[in-house]
Write a structure and sequence with these properties.
Layout lengths: L6 H19 L4 E5 L2 E5 L8 E5 L5 H13 L5 E4 L4 H6 L31 E4 L3 H15 L3 H13 L3 E8 L2 E11 L2 E9 L8 H15 L2
Parallel strand pairs: 3-4
Antiparallel strand pairs: 1-2, 2-3, 5-6, 6-7, 7-8
Helix pairs in contact: 1-5, 4-5
């Protein structure tokens, strides 16, 4: 039997699960439902971790309530909207005191049959203890120019979650790259692949992406 999957829906649901999982585990995090809308707030001053997800045409009263609730958290946040409801939400942008931000592209892979063999200057392994988590946080903060305090809070939440795995890459023992695997159902989401500037342009980011994908495949 031929099974057709909607990879865009899979990717969107994985993103919603990813942010929701981190918000659930974060010390200052909260997740609320407003009808069909999910509002997930990790409570840190970085909008990527605080979002209202709008995947279907929302009742405007629910969208307004979700935005108001998020605004009360007193942290920057995004309203993440997918086609075909972008235009409708945009029409209410002024009423909700929102501004248009950049698009966030994603990539969906239908098959993980062809994962290249490990061949990198970096040694990549899963993070399993607090010391490695500290190195992971330092690398991630440097690679994305995020506040170390914010990253540490999110990484602590990630380690506490069952469906999240952190990966750290080292070059000659020096922490150089980071990557994140977040699973939802049978979908493996790859997030936050970053490389410290001095180690860039050596194929380490690509190797990290494949390593996280390999872990997702091994998890089923």
């Amino acid at each position: 039997m031929l099974v057709t999957r909607d990879f865009v829906t899979d990717a969107n649901e994985n993103l919603r699960s990813a942010v929701g999982t981190l918000a659930d585990e974060a010390q200052t995090g909260q997740v609320r439902q407003f009808g069909p809308l999910t509002a997930a707030c990790a409570g840190v001053p970085a909008p990527i971790f605080n979002r209202v997800f709008v995947f279907d045409t929302p009742p405007i009263s629910k969208l307004s309530a979700a935005v108001a609730w998020m605004a009360e958290r007193d942290v920057p946040f995004w309203v993440t909207v997918t086609e075909p409801v972008v235009e409708e939400v945009t029409n209410h942008r002024a009423d909700l005191d929102l501004v248009t931000a950049a698009e966030q592209p994603g990539i969906a892979m239908a098959s993980l049959d062809e994962i290249p063999s490990r061949d990198s200057v970096a040694e990549i392994a899963a993070v399993t203890d607090p010391d490695e988590r500290d190195a992971f946080s330092t690398v991630t903060a440097s690679a994305f120019e995020w506040s170390l305090d914010v990253v540490e809070q999110v990484d602590q939440a990630a380690l506490a979650a069952d469906d999240v795995r952190l990966f750290l890459g080292r070059v000659d023992g020096h922490p150089a790259a980071s990557g994140l695997l977040i699973q939802s159902g049978h979908v493996a989401g790859v997030y936050s692949v970053g490389v410290v500037e001095e180690f860039r342009r050596r194929g380490i980011g690509e190797a990290m992406s494949w390593e996280v994908l390999r872990a997702g495949r091994e998890a089923g």
